[in-house]
Amino acid sequence: MRPRRASPHRNASPLTSSALLPLLLSLLILAPQPASTLRAQSTSTQPTPSQATPTQPAPAPPPNDPRYTLHVYSRLVQIPTLVLSPSLQPLPPIDPHSFNVSIDTGPLFRPNRGRLEGDDPITLAILLDVSGDQSSLLPVFSQSLSAWATQSLRPHDRVSIYAIDCDLIRTTNNEPPNPSVLQRGLDAAITSPITLGNKKHGTCGNSILLWNSMVVVMKQLAQLPGRRVLLVVSNGFDGHSTVKQDSLKAHATVDAVTIFAIAARTSLIYPWGRTMNSICEESGGILLITSPQDLLQRLDHFIDLLRKRYVLSFYMPAEPTPGTHIMHVTIDHTDAFIRPSGISVPLPDPTPTDIPSDAPYTPAPGTAPPMQPHP
Questions:
Q1: What CA–CA distance (Å, rounded) separates 190 from 126?
Q2: What is the dihedral of CA 125, 130, 133, 137, to 10 degrees?
Q3: What gap in Å lies between CA 328 and CA 106, rounded to an integer?
Q4: Rounded Cα gap, residues 3 and 104, in angstroms
Q5: Are strands 257-264 and 227-233 parallel, antiparallel or unpaired?
Q6: Which of 6, 114, 123, 221 could make an S-S bridge to 226, C-beta 3.0–4.6 Å?
Q7: Strand partners, 261
């Protein structure tokens, strides 16, 4: 497969906000969409000449016709939430009714539903930093890929593979976890002359545009369905990206992408390793440190963390305002490590006339104003 060049994004504007505290989640509410657009997104069938049109009402069904009315609510949101012990170890199953959520410091409410993520389709992008700092991990990654894809991924999962050094390339695009296909993509990413500048080793380590490249990958992930996850194999060093840390968080929220990273054990002694850890946690993920000997185990653990996330479902306030809102997630009687993922939600048309009156309960927002990005 011929690698595809993907140029790092260089025009992102940073989002001005204070550093997020633990347990806080950014929620971006988009501008209203016309009701007709929302309805079109809620159906998978197209009208046929035999179906009703605005100028030809559909005939009433016979009295015994077993038809049902389907109510579609665009305000229902799902929040994948990572829950671990304070030492970042797995916890016993948690009662979903013990979760609490508040929006913009508003009153606490219980999610309408909570469940384990389980075998929900994962849409995974792997970004390999081949600049040289991960040289001990990449060969082992290549050797472990087949076993990892076989034992941890499901047939309905999808994987894309990218690499970054002097440039950003994509060698595998949204493929099922076929070991041979992924192996070819990974090996092409590690050895591509596009990323390595026609050298046999990394050449652009001090000027690598890692954060710019992460934004490019997230934008491409945003076009795909499934639980979107970006796995960055890097110690987190970034050279001269125009994207800043706050803006990375904003992009992850807008694109509904959770960021995880895998790095060598020495990464956390450097400032950029600690920064990468913060970036991951602010998006709902974590940084996993490893050695070459433990890499396969860490990769399996990474997928296990995804499948054991709690998916919290609830309805947005009846009259939300556009902008970035903060949600606070807690669990009764626990000091667990909780990291929810960010999402973006479109506002419905404010003037529809066909919304039924039996819409479910929606929480009350707080009084904290939504955060706005700089122009």
A1: 12
A2: 60
A3: 9
A4: 44
A5: parallel
A6: 123
A7: 232, 287
Specify the pLDDT at position 21. 33
* Distance from C-alpha of 301 to C-alpha of 226, rounded to nearest angstrom: 20
d(CA 165, CA 4): 14
Residue 362 is predicted with a pLDDT of 63
- Tell me the CATH number for domain 4-18+118-309: 3.40.50.410
b (16+ CB within 10 A) / e for 18-34: eebeebbbbbbbeeeee
Token output for 175: 């493929």
Distance CA 300, CA 149 (A): 9
Q: Which residues pair with 325 in a beta bridge?
A: 27
In this structure, what DSSP letter does residue 153 have? -
Q: How far is CA 1 from CA 155, 183, 256, in A?
A: 21, 11, 29
Task: Please report the pLDDT score of residue 332 as a whole number.
Answer: 95
Q: Report the pLDDT value the prediction gives residue 322, as an integer from 0 to 100.
A: 81
123-to-34, 225, 232, 305 alpha-carbon distances in Å: 29, 7, 14, 15
- Alpha carbon distance 279, 261 (integer Å): 9
Domain coordinates in residue numbering, the chain: 4-18+118-309
Contacts of 250 (CB under 8 A, 6+ apart): 14, 15, 26, 28, 324, 373
Please state whether beta strands 76-84 and 337-340 pair in parallel, antiparallel, or not at all (unpaired). antiparallel
> Measuring CA to CA, which residue among 75, 70, 72 is closest to residue 32?
75
Q: Which among 12, 77, 80 is positioned nearest to 258, based on CA atoms? A: 80
DSSP letter, residue 53: B
| Residue indicated by tokens 């990572």 | 82
* Residues of the chain scoring pLDDT < 50: 1-2, 4, 7-25, 32-55, 197-198, 200-201, 374-375
Cβ burial, residue 330 (10 Å; 0-12/13-18/19+): middle
Find residue 231's DSSP bridge partners: 126, 260
Tell me which residue of 287, 291, 297 sits closest to 337, measured CA to CA. Answer: 287
